[in-house]
Design a protein that fits this description.
The chain has 56 residues and is of the alpha+beta class. It has 2 helices and 4 strands. The protein is globular. The structure holds iron/sulfur cluster (2 copies).
């Protein structure tokens, strides 16, 4: 299942550069994952300081 970024996101941007398929972009309030692109590798969750990315 694709990952989703929860409201815990503090928009630090660390995950964006780690995503191998560039599925993460900066949204209005928090970063967002394109579920169509996400390959569920978990790299974003590994670098996130607040554990905002969660697998659906
Ligand atoms: Fe990108 Fe992997 Fe996170 Fe999906 S789980 S958004 S592919 S880093
Ligand atoms: Fe948000 Fe975590 Fe990504 Fe930083 S690493 S932008 S806190 S989801």
């Amino acid at each position: 299942m694709p990952y989703r970024i929860t409201d815990e996101c503090i928009s630090c941007g660390a995950c964006e550069a780690e995503c191998p398929v560039s599925a993460i972009t900066q949204g209005d309030d928090i970063y967002v994952i394109d579920a169509e692109l996400c390959i569920s590798c978990g790299a974003c969750a590994d670098v996130c300081p607040v554990d905002a990315p969660v697998e659906e």
